[in-house]
Specification:
This protein is α/β, with parallel strands linked by helices and 320 residues long. The protein is built from 10 helices and 12 strands. The strands form 3 sheets. The protein has a 7-stranded mixed beta sheet, with helices on both faces. The chain has a 3-stranded antiparallel beta sheet with strand order 6-7-10. α2 runs antiparallel to α9 and α3 runs parallel beside α5. The model has no long low-confidence stretch (mean pLDDT 97). Bound molecules: S-adenosyl-L-homocysteine (SAH) and N,N-dimethyl-L-histidine. The site of S-adenosyl-L-homocysteine has 19 residues, from α2.
Length: 320
């Protein structure tokens, strides 16, 4: 009975996702949410991106964490529950876990289920004293959090990698409000924010010479073919990423290389030669711009750590 309820629930989620994909592709500007990058292969490709020399984000954030770890962990405090949104391989989290001797629980939340469970197991192996409670969920929708064995003193929400940059302003604000609620009384948000800088540095990060970002972008279509009944011809789309300095965002698209028709489930779509499917924005912030958003969501920017070149920032936000 429990199994069939789960199967019905999964079918309902899949049907909702198919209508979401069809709606996005039916808009004047065809689009697919970036959350569809992350099947097992997509999560692996993202990990490959983090190793690229052009992709300064991960290494810079890791450096900021290492350089300031004593201060960061002092802000987190003892006996906290660390709840990570979009945890991926929990790479930066390991630095925190190495230095947080007392933690009530670590709750990684991610949509990419196989990758999440594999990463959670690695964390358990490396940190056997930590209560690791993974949650497979789409964090843009309501989801419930597990109860740790030890009662936490406070909740620390962790949102690394500048993943908030993949959301447009209204949705980013909504997510900050959700994290404010999840932090609860006495809670806080530790967040990684990529900063505006030389447009060439930004554009190169999304157009790497090894072509991994292109593969990551195209894998979204393969994911839809594998799991959502689509029939995209991958060879007839090309990766594109351009930084729009006025909007402060990288626009990541797949450009059709010919006039063609593709299907998702029962719905057929025409796409013209040169027409784009928008797959992702990656917003870059100024420190002032992000502080204004954080304040509007009810947070006080208590501490900002950056690297020497001010490429990236890690910020500690408390509830006002
Ligand atoms: N925080 C990690 C990973 C960043 S990649 C880092 O900084 O390295 C973005 C992560 O967010 C991926 O693991 C992806 O699966 C997850 N993700 C993206 N959209 C999501 C959503 N709507 N709900 C849950 N997880 C999501
Ligand atoms: C997860 N996110 C912050 C990445 C970014 O840089 O916006 C996703 C990504 N897209 C292409 N390369 C990396």
């Amino acid at each position: 009975m429990a199994v069939s309820n789960l199967a019905i629930r999964n079918l309902a989620i899949r049907n909702r996702e198919i209508s979401e994909i069809v709606d996005g592709l039916s808009a004047d500007q065809k689009q697919i949410s970036p959350k569809y990058f992350y099947d097992e292969r997509g999560s692996q490709l993202f990990d490959d991106i983090t190793q690229l020399p052009e992709y300064y984000l991960t290494n810079t954030e890791l450096g900021i964490m290492r350089d300031n770890i004593a201060e960061i962990t002092a802000n987190v405090g003892k006996q906290a529950s660390l709840i990570e949104f979009g945890s991926g391989s929990s790479l930066k989290t390991r630095i925190l876990l190495e230095h947080l001797s007392q933690l009530a629980a670590y709750v990684p939340v991610d949509i990419s289920s196989e990758h999440l469970h594999a990463s959670a197991q690695q964390i358990r192996d490396q940190f056997p004293h930590v209560d690791v409670l993974p949650v497979v969920a789409d964090f843009t929708r309501t989801f419930s959090l597990p109860k740790p064995m030890v009662m936490p003193v406070r909740n620390i929400i962790y949102f690394s990698g500048s993943t908030i940059g993949n959301f447009e302003h209204d949705m980013a604000m909504e997510l900050l409000r959700v994290m404010y609620q999840e932090a609860g009384a006495g809670g806080a948000l530790l967040i990684g924010i990529d900063l505006q800088k030389d447009p060439n540095v930004i554009e190169n990060a999304y157009n790497d010479s090894a072509g991994i970002t292109a593969e990551f972008n195209l894998n979204m279509l393969q994911h839809l073919n594998r799991d959502y009944g689509a029939n995209f011809d991958i060879n007839e789309f090309a990766h594109s990423a351009n930084y729009d300095e006025n909007e402060g965002r990288v626009v990541i698209e797949l450009i059709s290389q010919t006039d063609q028709i593709f299907e998702v489930g029962d719905t057929a779509f025409d796409i013209a030669d040169g027409e784009a499917i928008l797959t992702e924005y990656s917003y870059k912030y100024t420190l002032e711009g992000f502080a204004a958003m954080a304040n509007a969501a009810g947070f006080d920017v208590e501490k900002v750590w950056t690297d020497a070149k001010q490429l990236f920032s890690v910020q500690f936000l408390t509830r006002l």
